[in-house]
Amino acid sequence: MTVGYKRIFWGIFIATFNITIGILTILPAFVGWIVVLTGISELEEKTSGGDFSRPKISAMILVVASLGGGILSLLGSGNVESFLPMLFYPLFVIAIELVVFHKILEGSVHNFNAMDQQEIANKYTGKDRTYIILTGITMVLLSISLTINHQGTGFIGVVMAMISRIYLLTAMNSLSKEDYKTDYEEKD
User: Fold this and answer.
1) What is the full DSSP assignment across 116-135?
2) How far apart are the C-alpha atoms of 124 and 131, rounded to whole Å?
3) HSE of 58 in the Cβ direction (CA atoms, 13 Å)?
4) What's the distance, CA 148 to chain centroid?
5) Strands annotated E in the chain
6) CA distance 21 to 11
7) Axis-axis angle for helices 2-16, 151-187 (nearest 10)
8) Tens-digit pLDDT profile for residues 54-70
9) Distances in Å between the alpha carbon of 129 and those of 47, 104, 120?
10) End-to-end alpha-carbon separation of the chain, Å?
11) Are the CB atoms for 18 and 32 separated by under 8 Å?
C-alpha cells in the first residue's frame, strides 16, 4: 500500500505544479490525475477494510475534466476564460478533488481500524477534517471572488488553495510512511 500512497503523492504534485513552456505544457494536470488514479488502483488491490471505488471514479472524472480543460484552453487561446461555465471550472475541479481525497483518507481510516490501529485511525480522521475545512474555506473564498469579482478575496482564496494542497501532500506523505511502518511491524 505504500506504493499506492507514494503514487498519489506524486500525482498530486504533478497535477499541482505542472510545467508549461510557452504554449506547450510538459506535464499537464491530467497526467498527475492519471498517476493518482493508478495509486488508488494500487490501494484498492491491497486494501483490507477501506472502499476505494468512489475515489477511483471521481479521479477518472478529474482526468477527463483536466484533459477537456487543457484542450479548451489550448484551442481557445485566452478566450475560454471569459466563457461562463469555464469561469467556474476551478471550483468544479476543487469540489471533485475534495471528494477524491476525503474518500481516500476515509478508506485509509477504515484500513487502520481493520488492523486495530485506533490511534493512527484517529490521527488521520483529524487530518481528514482539517483538509475538508481548508478546502471548504478555499471554495467559499473563490466563489465569493468569482461572484462579486473581488481580487483581494480571490488572492486569499488562491493562498488557501495552496495551503490545503500542501497540507494534502504532507498527509499523503505521512500516510505512505505510516503504512510502511505497519507493514514492517507485521513482518516481525
Assistant:
1) T-HHHHHHHHHHHHHHHHHH
2) 10
3) 18
4) 27
5) 20-21, 24-25
6) 20
7) 160
8) 899 999 999 999 888 87
9) 22, 13, 14
10) 18
11) yes
